[in-house]
Design brief:
3 helices, mainly alpha, about 60 residues, flat
Length: about 60
């Protein structure tokens, strides 16, 4: 049961990130380069999925 609730939380957070990125619009929510360089999430982790959920809309928008 814990696994499914964790996945549901991850899905909700990813969806919230996508909706926030769409609502704010491309280019209006700058990600500091220092933060991006300091924190590189490991591939296959929940953090990586959240980060890519936030980055994907901007990448698709050509930002």
């Amino acid at each position: 049961m814990k696994r499914s609730s964790g996945f549901a939380l991850l899905a909700v957070l990813g969806l919230a990130g996508v909706l926030l990125a769409v609502a704010v619009g491309p280019g209006r929510l700058p990600v500091p380069q220092v933060f991006a360089q300091l924190w590189r999430p490991q591939v296959g982790t929940r953090e990586a999925l959240i980060v890519w959920g936030l980055r994907l809309p901007r990448a698709l928008a050509g930002d």
